[in-house]
Amino acid sequence: MAKKTPTTKPNFEKALSDLESLVEDMEQGNLSLEDSLKRFEKGIALSTECQQALQNAELKIKQLVEKNGKLLEQDIELDA
């Protein structure tokens, strides 16, 4: 089995878009129980992927600044 590489993983925006599409499909209420369960399962996986991507981004946003030979962690304020 081939290993997943960063280029084969969907990016955050694609995963979020797919998740939103799944939610819209389920909210319409036209799916069978089996299809709803399949979409729910896929939605959980996409949600987990998005949460992990956000956590990774948060870690990258934190900068290490060298001051007097010590590394200090500084958070960057982002406009939400």
From TrEMBL:
Keyword Membrane found: no
GO cellular component terms listed in the entry, alphabetical order: cytosol; exodeoxyribonuclease VII complex
Residue stretches in coiled coil: 47-74
One GO-annotated biological process of the protein: DNA catabolic process
Molecular function GO labels: exodeoxyribonuclease VII activity
Alphabetical list of InterPro entries matching this protein: Exonuc_VII_S (IPR003761), Exonuc_VII_ssu_sf (IPR037004)
Keywords linked to the UniProt accession: Coiled coil, Cytoplasm, Hydrolase, Nuclease
Pfam families: Exonuc_VII_S
PANTHER family: EXODEOXYRIBONUCLEASE 7 SMALL SUBUNIT
NCBIfam families with a match to the protein in the record: PRK00977.1-4, xseB
HAMAP family referenced in this protein's UniProt entry, alphabetically: Exonuc_7_S (MF_00337)
Protein name: Exodeoxyribonuclease VII small subunit
